[in-house]
Amino acid sequence: VVAAGPFANLVLAIALYSFVQWYGIDQPLPIVGAPPAGSVLADAGLQRGDRVVATARGGDAGEGEFRAAHSMDDVMRAIEEALVEREPLQLRVARAGSSAPRTLTAAVEAIDPFTAPAPGSKTLGLTLDAQVGGVLPDGAAARAGLRGFGTPATS
Fold it and tell me: Least packed by Cβ within 10 Å: which of 3, 40, 128, 152?
């Protein structure tokens, strides 16, 4: 009887942990918003709606050095690593209306991550492009004219 309480807590912890691991956590897709003009990512050629599919550090990264980007967290991690190592960042992006992904080089080494930006200095320019996940057929979003998955939340 004395061990029943702790045993029940252990079983509950295992069940909750298993549920979280199987269910997962929703993370935003690596679809970028419009980078501000003059920012590092705008200079690299990134455009609103581009989906980052892979990243690699270094200006001459080989095919095997690219890591898949499944979420915006993966992109942010790659940017942080490139900033700390003071290396350019290769972004492989899929652009709407384009058949093949293209590779862009962002000169993130131009940004000093350890000091506050001076007025007029380069900024990264990474913004998130909010996407509609789903619209209920009889819901307020459908009545307001929003379409289904993958459409921009703002125009």
Answer: 3
* CA distances from residue 20 to 13, 14, 38, 69, 74 in whole angstroms, order as listed: 11, 10, 42, 22, 20
H-run or E-run covering 105: strand 102-106
Distances (CA, A) of 47 to 17, 85, 100, 104: 39, 25, 16, 11
Question: What residues contact 146, with CB distance under 8 A and at least 6 apart?
Answer: 132, 135, 153
Residues forming beta bridges with residue 57, ordered by sequence position = 89
- Which uninterrupted H or E stretch holds 98? none
Determine if the pTM surpasses 0.70. Answer: no
**What one-character DSSP code corresponds to residue 131?**
B
Amino acid at 41: L
What pLDDT digit, counting tens, does each position of 102-153 carry?
888 888 777 776 776 677 677 788 877 766 667 778 888 778 877 665 556 5
Angle at 116 between CA 34 and CA 103, to 5 degrees: 35
